[in-house]
Design a protein that fits this description.
- About 0% of the residues lie in helices and about 50% in strands.
- The protein is mostly beta strands.
- The strands form 18 sheets. A five-stranded antiparallel beta sheet has the order 1-14-13-12-11, with no helix packed on it.
- About 45% of the residues are buried.
């Protein structure tokens, strides 16, 4: 490849202009930090936390530059160069005619040199006013480089490279035969050699613009060259190789990566070369691989190196995943910070280690440290398991929210991972939770932001016994009292053991109780012995050399209550009463007097609660009453009386029954009425009735006083067909019923007398019913199975009769024969055999 022509228009500049146009003495005055593009910064200690984010109005694809006063200069695609104060506030902005996609360079006098797509290179004073501008005739998309002699280098793709004097006049201009790289920054060697990527080749130009040498790769070079301390020149190509060239342009070595190299290599203090391709590579000065770091994507941003060796690299592994990675010198990840959109810009590192980088989400991120003024505690001494509050103070304010990392040197005190400061705030508080400890523990709490760290100390004390309380200071003998021991904080792991003692053998407590880990109190039971007199006891608890005491009074058992079950009964029924004590009966038991206010309610005079028991039962007998009786039963122990109510209701009819629910008409059975209790004095009359005249019962029956039932006779009349009727009994408004079935008479028997006759003779048959014939009488059908024996076809039973006879005649026979005589009544038949002899 050949440079077509060099046009020189200016020969010299003054010495004062030279000194003023050298790079600013700042942490990051241009793309890749210095003229060699080695990307080595002087700041260190970024902690991966956002200090602030300044939003422009369009994507940021160019890297920031930092002035000697800490001002951050960032170009945006919205045509403006923004000057941002170190606290994230806007200092000023400078507008150009087109988009800005390249990094400015800052001169020693603070002049900012900037290329724009509006074809101009601008020189901007530190106050944001224009110093001069130079029109290149093409969009300026390369980052500005400043030579030691003050020359400003700017490229305008596709084929223009310009050297501009510090006063804004053209020094010389080159037109190239092949496309010059679109986004790059010329590297400048110690001897003033300028390294420019043109198409497949890296050109080394003399300070006068003439070609010194060129080296051709196998594909287009998109990134810039960088120069190591020994003068080696490194450049990556989209052919996938990193080339190491000697200062004379000969190949020193090459390293094959896994993809195209689109970025500018960075050179570490030890000569390690860092660059991105299909992953991030660290290659030693001799061309051997040291390590790789997988970001999951082809890398389009160049790396930056902090003074501590940390490498900062932007990556875009997914449509919603865009990160700044901090990589340790050994290739392990230090931290990552997710930004909003694609990161194409190289990070700039501030003097305090803050990392500045823009993304296509229009924002400039300041990631890193800020000075911490101090840390204090609301209570520097706490009991383990309780809390305290910490306050972190920052040295200055910021319009953006900021975060400080927090840590402790012991699990006995826990703090959040970080505390966030709202915009413009210089103080923020955070909670401190502690865990119970068995012994006094001093914990160091640290607030850090990168290299800025402050500490304070928190003393955590073990819990102390604070009190013994009783649920009740007085109990009845035999009752269980409940004691509660309390600490001034939660018990540690393993719990806190508290010894317990009493000074009275009638009051018994466990010898020790344990307050379980994490709890500040526990309860325990105190057993008392039933007694006939009042006693007192002192309960003492001790833990950690601290004792607490409480007095318990034990009184004799007291009458607590009297109850009945059931509370409503019918006269004559039994109920069960129960008396209960507060406490337990002493040795020998405890007799309780019982009384009733009604003769219809009878209780025993005394009921005894057995020794050690707390209750006893007794029977209550009732008698019949004619109206509801509200009675009262009273139990008395000493001066304490307790009463309960019992209701005795009049007994009512419960059942009406008969001795047989099915009877043949004309017969009698027994009926019975039964109460659900006892009849009152004078007895209880129950009215009786029948739904049918075929049943005859008395009009009433009397249940005698104190009895629960009475019987009566039920008479029935004969019926022609089966029938059913209801019987009822009524007393005190209560009606009970039962059903009675009355069966019509049926055939009981058919007999012949004699049962054998000589032919021509007659005999007599007798038909018998099982009950008298009804009033209308009864007909029974007769039949003979043989013509040799003749009988009537029917016979009649007069009313009230149970049997009747009929005559059977026979005819002459020559041989012995038999005839069957059949009597039929409804569905019932009876038969008899008649023997007829010749």
């Amino acid at each position: 490849m050949r440079i077509l022509r060099v046009l020189t228009l200016a020969l010299a500049v003054s010495l004062s202009a030279l000194s003023m146009s050298q790079l600013a003495n700042s942490p990051w005055p241009k793309f890749m930090q210095n003229g060699k593009n080695s990307s080595q910064g002087s700041g260190e200690g970024s902690n991966g936390m956002l200090r602030w984010n300044y939003s422009t109005t369009a994507p940021i694809n160019a890297s920031a530059a930092i002035g000697s006063d800490g001002t951050v200069y960032v170009p945006s695609s919205d045509n403006n160069l923004y000057a941002i104060n170190p606290d994230g506030t806007l200092k000023w902005f400078f507008g150009t005619g087109r988009s800005l996609v390249a990094t400015p360079a800052i001169g020693a006098d603070g002049t900012v040199y900037l290329g724009s797509a509006d074809y101009n290179v601008y020189a901007i004073n530190p106050d944001g006013s224009q110093k001069w501008k130079f029109n290149t005739g093409e969009a300026v998309t390369s980052s500005i480089a400043l030579a030691p002699d003050g020359t400003v280098y700017a490229a305008s793709p596709p084929s223009s490279f310009n050297a501009i004097n510090p006063n804004g006049t053209l020094k010389w201009h080159i037109d190239t035969s092949f496309p010059i790289a679109t986004y790059f920054c010329p590297a400048i060697g110690a001897d003033g050699t300028i390294y420019v990527p043109i198409s497949f080749s890296l050109f080394a130009l003399n300070p006068d613009g003439t070609t010194k040498w060129s080296y051709q790769t196998h594909n287009v070079i998109w990134g810039s060259a960088s120069i190591s301390a020994d003068g080696s020149v490194y450049v990556g190509s989209t052919d996938g190789y990193l080339y190491a060239l000697n200062p004379n342009g000969t190949l020193k070595w090459s390293f094959k990566s896994g993809g195209a190299i689109q970025v500018t290599p960075a050179v570490g203090a030890d000569g390690t070369v860092y660059f991105g391709s299909d992953r991030f590579y660290a290659v030693g000065p001799n061309g051997t691989l040291k390590w790789t770091f997988n970001t999951g994507t082809i890398l389009s941003a160049s790396p930056a190196i902090g003074a501590d060796g940390t490498i900062y690299q932007g990556a875009n592994p997914g449509p919603d995943n865009h990160y700044i990675y901090a990589i340790n010198p050994d290739g392990t990840q230090k931290w990552s910070y997710q930004v909003g959109q694609i990161v194409n810009a190289t990070a700039a590192i501030g003097a305090d280690g803050t990392v500045y980088v823009g993304d296509e989400d229009w924002g400039l991120y300041a990631i890193g440290t800020y000075a911490i003024g101090g840390i204090s505690l609301s209570n520097p001494t706490v009991v383990g398991g309780t809390t305290s509050t910490g306050t972190v103070t920052l040295a200055d304010s910021s319009t953006s929210a900021r975060t400080v990392a927090l840590s402790t040197n012991s699990l006995s005190a826990l703090v959040p991972h970080s505390v966030t400061f709202p915009p413009n705030a210089t103080t923020a508080t955070f909670p401190i939770s502690t865990t119970p400890v068995p012994a006094s523990t001093v914990v160091t709490i640290t607030a850090s932001s990168g290299a800025s760290n402050v500490t304070t100390h928190l003393t955590i004390s073990p819990p102390l016994l604070t009190s013994l309380s009783l649920a009740s200071n007085s109990v009845a003998g035999g009752e269980t009292a409940i004691g509660t021991v309390s600490l001034n904080g939660p018990a540690p792991i393993g719990g806190t053991v508290v010894t317990v003692s009493t000074n009275n053998k009638s009051v018994m407590a466990p010898t020790s109780v344990t307050i379980s880990a994490g709890n500040a109190s526990t309860q325990f039971s105190i057993q008392t012995t039933p007694g006939a007199s009042t006693v007192t006891a002192t309960i003492t608890v001790t833990a950690g050399g601290v004792s607490e005491a409480a007095t318990l009074t034990v009184v004799p058992a007291l009458l607590a209550d009297i109850t009945m079950s059931p509370v409503t009964v019918y006269g004559g029924d039994l109920s069960t009463g129960s008396v209960s004590l507060i406490g337990a009966a002493p040795k020998g038991g405890l007799a309780i007097k019982l009384t009733s206010n009604s003769s219809a309610i009878v209780v025993p005079g005394l009921v005894t609660v057995s020794s050690g028991a707390q209750s006893a039962k007794f029977n209550v007998t009732t008698f019949g009453v004619s109206t509801d009786l509200q009675g009262s039963i009273t139990a008395k122990l000493g001066t304490i009386s307790k009463s309960t109510s019992i209701t005795v209701q009049p007994a009512v009819l419960e059942v009406l029954s008969v001795s047989n629910n099915s009877i043949t008409g004309g017969l009698s059975i027994t009926g019975k009425v039964t109460l659900n209790g006892s009849a009152p004095k004078g007895g209880l009359v129950a009215a009786l009735s029948s739904a049918s005249g075929t049943v005859q019962i008395p009009a009433s029956v009397t249940i005698p006083s104190g009895k629960s039932s009475a019987t009566f006779i039920v008479k029935t009349l004969p019926v022609a067909t089966d029938t059913s009727t209801a019987l009822s009994a009524k007393a005190n408004g209560t009606v009970v019923t039962t059903n009675l079935s009355i069966v019509a008479p049926s055939l009981a028997s058919l007999k012949l007398s004699p049962a054998a006759v000589s032919s021509g003779k007659s005999t007599t048959g007798t038909v018998t019913l099982d009950a008298p014939a009804p009033t209308s009488g009864l007909s029974v059908s007769l039949a003979s199975s043989s013509s040799e024996a003749t009988c009537p076809t029917t016979i009649s039973f007069p009313a009230g009769k149970t049997s009747t006879t009929f005559k059977i005649t026979t005819s002459k026979v020559s041989s012995k024969s038999t005839a069957t005589i059949t009597a039929t009544l409804r569905s019932t038949t009876k038969t008899a055999l008649l023997a007829i002899n010749p």
